[in-house]
Amino acid sequence: MSISCLTTTHPLQSLTVKLHKTNQDKDILMYPDISPESEHQRWSVRKDAGNVTLVLKDIRLSDDGLYDCQVYKDQDCLNVIRFNLKVKECKILDTVHPTPGSSVLLPCSEHPLQNRTEQVTWKVVNGRQSTDISQYAPPNKPSSSTEKLLKPLYER
């Protein structure tokens, strides 16, 4: 997840970025990091094309809350962004282990009395890394001229 905090021409090294979780009155991140203990290893700051952006990896239910992102140049506050992060608990279905080259039916059910469809996401999981099924590319293997091109995994 990423949140844009400011668009600026200032170099990132000249800025101070502070992330504060207001509903817990707790500083989550200070860039550059001046604290000896880094409890916020999942949060980081980057600047791409002039945008100062907060990045959160490995989102957890405990991340839910109201945040302030403050960006300073010396003592001047350049911008404050307040955002409310809502983390939705996802239901993870049982893992499916298909035989290579075979077809598999991925189960997905809805409650018949609901008037809306929940968003469904399929991921290919390899160890601790997961890839959206529409972005998945199988590991490279030596190709031969007789090998036909396969459709994307989600179409197969």
UniProtKB/TrEMBL annotation:
Q: Where is the Ig-like domain?
A: 1-79
Where is region (Disordered) located? 131-156
Matching entries from SUPFAM superfamilies are given as: Immunoglobulin
Q: Which Gene3D superfamilies match?
A: Immunoglobulins
Protein name (record): Ig-like domain-containing protein
